[in-house]
Specification:
By secondary structure, this protein is of the alpha+beta class. It is about 40% helix and about 30% strand. Strand 1 (about 5-10), helix 1 and strand 2 form a beta-alpha-beta unit. It is elongated, with a radius of gyration of 14 Å.
Amino acid sequence: MMTIQVNTDNHIDGKEDFASYIKDLFNEKLKRFDSHVTRIEVHLSDENAGRGGSDDKKCNIEARIENHDPIFASATSNEMHVAISDALQKIKTGIDRVLDKIKN
């Protein structure tokens, strides 16, 4: 079973809401990798600490694949939900690549 851990910096409003949203979203979108991925760590940050600015919301994801080195993905946006979605898509692609290499 895949463990999902969500970390946020002190400038993220609604930390609990984001943690719940991310756990539900990632469990749904990464379900097919459940037997290979042991842990997902998500780090959310607001680079400008609430002062505004473009692409200041950042989502970093680390995926730990059983018996393999961790892989990373990152995305930034004006909106945290967009950064999360973009980073999720990148990590899915990365996991697919690693699992394809393992199969072949």
